[in-house]
Amino acid sequence: MAIASELMILDSTDQPAATCAVCGNGVAAGAGVTASYSGRVLRFKCPGCFSRFQADPEPYLAGETGGCCGGEHEH
Ligand SMILES: [Zn+2]
Question: Domains of the chain: which residue ranges?
Answer without folding.
Answer: 10-61
